[in-house]
Structure formats: C-alpha cells, structure tokens
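Dear Dr. L.,

I hope this message finds you well. Following up on our conversation about the binding site, I have prepared a predicted three-dimensional model of the protein together with PBG. For your records, I am including the exact sequence and ligand specification that went into the calculation, followed by the structure tokens. Please feel free to forward this to your student if that is useful.
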Amino acid sequence: MPSFPTHRPRRLRQNGPLRQVMADVRLHPDMLIQPVFVSADDQLHEVASMPGVRQWPVNAALEAIGRWRDAGLKQFLLFGVTPTERKDATGSYAHDPEAPVNRLMAQVKAAGLDALLYADLCLCEYTDHGHCGALTAPAHANDDRAVDNDATLALLGQLAVAQACAGADVVAPSGMMDGQVAAIRAALDAAGFHHLPIMSYSVKYASNFYGPFRDAGQGGMAFGDRKGYQMDYRRGREWREELASDLEQGADMVMVKPAATYLDIIYQVRQACSVPVAAYHVSGEYAMLHAAAQRGWVDLQAAAMETTLAIKRAGADLIVTYFAPELVKWLAGGDDKVTG
Ligand code: PBG
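The resulting structure of the complex is given below.
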C-alpha cells in the first residue's frame, strides 16, 4: 500500500481552468424555454411573487421576444392572462384569434422572428371556475363539480387547431386529462397540421409549488383543487403509466413538472424513453430562490445555476425556467465564476 492514495480526485479540482474543462454536464441557451405571460391589458404588470416576471401586453411581448432572441434565447412557452369578463365555463376565449396568446403568435410569425413558440394548451387560463376543463353537473346541490374528462377532450382538440392556425410551432397540453394527446393529435391531423409536434406535460404532479404562477396567470380556482386530475406525489411509480400512455397516443416530447423536487422522476423518465424530456422549474421553485436571495441567505446567480444544472444532470434535455433570460446572460460569461 502506498503511504497515500494513488487516486487523488483533487488533482482535477485544483484550479478554475481545470475545473472548467472537466465539467461534463453543461447548460446551453438552446436547451432553455422561457415562459411568457401575455395579457389583454395595455399595461405591463410586474408579478409580485415572481421578481423579474411580468404580464406582457402583446406589443411589448413581441419586442421582448425579439430582444431575448437577440441575446440567444430561442424558445418561448406562452400563457394567456384573460380579463375576467372574457372568462366562461368552457374557456371559449382561448379559441379566439384575438386572445393575447393567439395574437402574439401571429405577430411573431408575421415579423419573421426566428423563435420557437410553444402554446400552453389548457383551459384553466380561460375558465371562470379556474379548472383545466369543462365541469360535470353536480350530483348533489352541495357537491363540488368535477372536471368532465371527455367533454374537455373535444375542447382541447379545437384549441389545438386554433393555436396551430395562429402560428404555434409546438402545442403543449398541460391539463392532465386522460386521452388528451390522442384527441389533440387527431384534431390537428384532421385540420392538416400533421407536422405540428406535441410536447405533453405527461408527468405533472398536483404540486404546492404552482402558487405564484396562479398570481402570474390570474388563474386561481373558484373551488377545490387539481388533485382529481394532476398526479399524487406520494405515488412513486405512476409516472410509468402516464409516460407510456402519452407516448402511445403520439406525444413527440414529454415533460416532468415540477423539476427541482422531482429529480428522481426526471432521471427515471430519461432512462425509460428516448423522446426529448423537458422539465419545468416552476413558479414556486423560482420564488423560493428569490426569497432566500433577497434575505441574503443564498447568492441568486450561483444558486440558480446550481439548481438548473442539477435538472440537466438528472436527464432533462430541455428546461422550462423563469431564469432563462438571466441564465443566458450568465452563461455568456462562460467561466467557472458562473457556478459560484
Ligand atoms: C396550467 C399550468 C400551471 C402551470 C403551468 N401550466 C398551473 C397549474 O397546473 O395549476 C404551473 C407553472 C408554474 O407554477 O410555474 N395547467
């Protein structure tokens, strides 16, 4: 036995340049997807619980996408902020070519901006009760009404076609209805959109980390919660069924959501399939890092880089993150400093 170990892992950690070239997991702007909230209002609104995140009027969103694109960010996931008076029981405004997301997509395409647009495909941004689909009639007067799965499928199919017509490059169903990918695929194909990919939020948990998003999208629920359609995080194997079912129905890409508290799931989904896997670092995960940084308890840039890289290391090919514009700036710095 040598007097000290011959294997010395510290050799490759001894200075910044060595650490930099030995890094075998890296982030790149191409893997980032920036969520954008588009509103019908003509004023820009800051989202209090998500520092740096705004509700953008359509024109301002168009300009912002141009700027982000120039900085190297290529992918955007669009959510609509709907005026209360336009909300109804079935979210019919979602289909309107004048709804902000549809208008923005048309304008981005008309401007010839080289940006990939993912349309979040869900009704909760448009329904007056805030649920992700049409409701069943209550069995008893005091019962909460449930979401009617199959009635919702027809609406989602129509919405997919409306979004495709408006200029979406990818549709991203997030409502967790059974059979939604097949219904959307059939509707798109019937309308001639065979080429349009579906990124399914396949493995989406009923999470406590969506709170700030509901401020950002003004999409709280009038009653109840989403546990009847989103997954129960206490079930560790159910993702297999959701993944298999979405792939069978024709999902081109799949998503795991949330991300940072679900790294085990991202890892397993990555191993279990070969389609691109996206992970959504959600609003509450973003807000927590900001809250700690505001109190001086973590360094925002270093903590955000570490968290995002962990999501990548777990196996995500694409990362939906509110940090995207900052990450692109930090990554342009390019050296060891960005990781803290
Ligand atoms: C809508 C939707 C939600 C999010 C993305 N799409 C809210 C929800 O499911 O309640 C959450 C995103 C985030 O928290 O950042 N179906």
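In brief: Strands lie at 32-39, 45-46, 54-57, 75-81, 116-121, 170-173, 199-204, 253-257, 277-281, 318-321.

With kind regards,
A. P.
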